[in-house]
Amino acid sequence: MQTLKESLASKKFTITAEICPPKGTDTADFLKKARLLKDKIAAANVTDNQRAVMRLSSLACSVLLLREGIDPVFQMTCRDRNRIAIQSDILGAWVLGIKNILALSGDHVSFGDHREAKAVFDLDSVQLVQVIKKLNNGTNMKDTPLKGGTDFLIGAVVAPEADPWEPEMIKFEKKIEAGARFFQTQAIYDMEKFHKFYEYAKKNDVKILGGILLLKSAKMAHFLNNNVPGITVPNHLIDELEKSKDQLEKGIEIAARQVKELKGFCDGAHIMAIGQEESVVNIIEAAG
Amino acid sequence: MIITKKKGFSKILEYLKDRKNIYLFGCDSCAEQCETGGEKEVKAMAELLKKEGKYITGSSIPAETCYSMLVKKHFREDKEAVENTDAFLVLACGAGVKAVADAAGDGKPVFPALDSLYLANVTRYGHFFEGCSLCGECVLGETGGICPHTQCPKGLLNGPCGGMANGRCEVNMENNCAWVMIYQRLKAQGRLDVLKRIAPPKDYSGSVKPKMLVVESRIKK
Prior knowledge:
The complex is a heterodimer of chains A (288) and B (221). By secondary structure, chain A is α/β, with parallel strands linked by helices. Helices cover 41% and strands 16% of the residues of chain A. Chain A has helices at residues 4-9, 28-37, 58-67, 83-95, 125-136, 166-178, 191-201, 218-227, 235-243, 247-263, 279-286; strands at residues 14-19, 43-46, 72-77, 100-104, 153-158, 182-187, 207-213, 268-272. In chain A, strands 1-2-3-4-5-6-7-8 form an 8-stranded parallel β-barrel, surrounded by 7 helices. In chain A, helix 4 (83-95) links the parallel strand 3 and strand 4. Chain A is globular, with a radius of gyration of 18 Å. The relative contact order of chain A is 0.14. Chain B has 221 residues and is of the alpha/beta class. Chain B is built from 9 helices and 7 strands; from the N terminus they run E-H-E-H-H-E-H-H-E-H-E-E-E-H-H-H. Chain B has helices at 9-15, 30-33, 39-51, 68-77, 79-83, 94-104, 148-151, 178-188, 192-196, and strands spanning 2-6, 21-25, 55-60, 87-90, 110-112, 114-124, 127-130. In chain B, the strands form 2 sheets. Chain B has a 4-stranded parallel beta sheet with strand order 3-2-4-5, sandwiched between helices. A 3-stranded antiparallel beta sheet of chain B has the order 1-6-7, with no helix packed on it. In chain B, helix 4 crosses helix 6 (94-104). The radius of gyration of chain B is 22 Å and the shape is elongated. The A-B interface holds A 78-79, 83, 104-108, 110-111, 119, 121-127, 130, 141, 157, 159, 162-164, 166-168, 170-171, 173-174, 177-178, 186, 229-230, 232 and B 153-167, 170-171, 179-180, 182-183, 187, 192, 195-196, 198-202, 204.
């Protein structure tokens, strides 16, 4: 199997996609979706209790993907663990064979299904990247040598359409300084704006995978706008969905169009098809 | 100022089940200003409890109920009523409840009538805003006087999260993003270099509970 690291180094257009773990121990559906994506994508991201909804762990599901011959991107948020648990779980991921890790802050517990929970955030995403870098260098975050370190490919997230942009840009630069080598962006809606971001970002030695979010329907677009942090689907796309006979088909067409545009200039695409992972293959095929 | 809110009356009745003679404590400081434990609220609580068949043995509203010695003084001054009491109900913050519990000792139960919420700035008369979390290691010098531990729901130290939209906070869109405000202030002060430095993880080693301080120079010899 070709790894994400190899794919990014080969300079060919790299496609990753997100797979969401199940809310329980029945992994049949998760594995079915994963098998559909195998060999179509360079790596699959496994989300870490996204939107603060409790699911099967991202670590366990990453290992399940490895067994299927799929290179996982182990997503790790700062929401649920303190710095001791974070380091311990990251070391655990390494000995289980995981090579890629994506560091995120994590959605706040107030969005999820356990709103009574304590939000941890002992570290933030920049500090998390620093910690992984230290583990890669063979020490813990206190600079104490480890009996065996890690060698993760470290990724992070950036929001190229953040408004205002400058505080986000400063944070992006801190993540690079901390040791992030690839970025998967939040969903792109304004390709021209994204292109400008890409030109700026590539002054650094980092790989950028543009975030593509599959819109299953106009209803979903409205839901995202009202419920999901950091996502604002523009009205012209919602109109396009509403006017079409088959909204899912139209959503796939829009996503494929965006992937095709990215192919013209970007390192790759990161496809987020929340709950509709089987459509990722259609998007990739339609993008040519 | 410590902000408090009233617990539901059913919770208070649950506490006081099987207790007939009740003594009430209020607080003439923070709880008075929040209208949760001043004279008006203590009187109202006494009336409600009487309707439920309770007997009010007495009440006290110390100037500051978190002052343990002041609470003990009220206990001494109202000795007979205190002795005839089955349980104390405290309309003050948790520190006030602790002061009354310490004064009452092991014999009689003490119950809170309020929940303690936060340390507040009084931004306008009757407006209480949480501006400090008493975290033990002040970062306001690096953040333009806007506390990221307090005003950012995630307590992030290196900039906004991905949920920031149009300068607003993902957790409550009515609030400005703390990091956008910090950015704007540092920019206005020509101090964006401070924002560009990676802030290290917070040191919680000085936050082991319970915290205690003795100011030697203030101890009466």
